[in-house]
Request: fold
Amino acid sequence: MKNLIQEEKEVTHDSERILNSVLPRRSFLQFAGAGAVGVALMAAGCSKDKDYVGPTDPIVPGENKVELGSGDPGILNYAYALEQLEAAFYTKVVESFWSGISEKERDFITDIQLHEVAHRELFKNLLGDKKIGNLAFDFSKVNFSDKNSVLTAAKDLEDIGVAAYNGVAPLLKSKDALITAAKIVSVEARHAAYIREILKQNDFAAGVVDAKGQDRSLKPSEVLNFVKQYITTEINASNLPTA
Reply:
């Protein structure tokens, strides 16, 4: 099989190529993770801003805010916001990898970036006219030329993402929405495990699972409080369901 990176260097910024590329067989992360959450939806509605990392409109001081909404759409917008963040982060990473990165690490990180773009586009299409706008980000706290800085931030984002999905899954009313969230969180957990492994060998899931081996769950308020260090858009989650 052709290697994705060799086949098309610009594939990370072209969602249509994701669907048409021949992908390598990876022992851990496979692009099937994105397909499992319905990546076909991405083809039906990808827009020209598929590689955005911030808002398409100028930020107006005091007006850069979004309202997630209520019910299942609000929860899906919450997930969409987090997937925007992850897609933007990994897009920054693959634009300029840290010095000394191995070919295997480069391939795996690129796979993760493709997954996050697919997740972002999936929610964008599912939500339709109920979706929030493009968020704005600030990654100035991350030194993208330093492996440890990048992977530490990646680990935090993946861990918080898994905890976020776990926290809102019980609140979803739609069976289809719950299935979608369950499929995505399984992929995010694989990301988290891999990032932890290359950051610290045999770390796997230290500190994020309980005595029963279950991943932690966090409330939206806890998650949004953590990610606001990266998201400069004000996010109003006050109307999200709580039970």
In short: The longest helix spans residues 71-95. Confidence is low (pLDDT under 50) at residues 1-59.
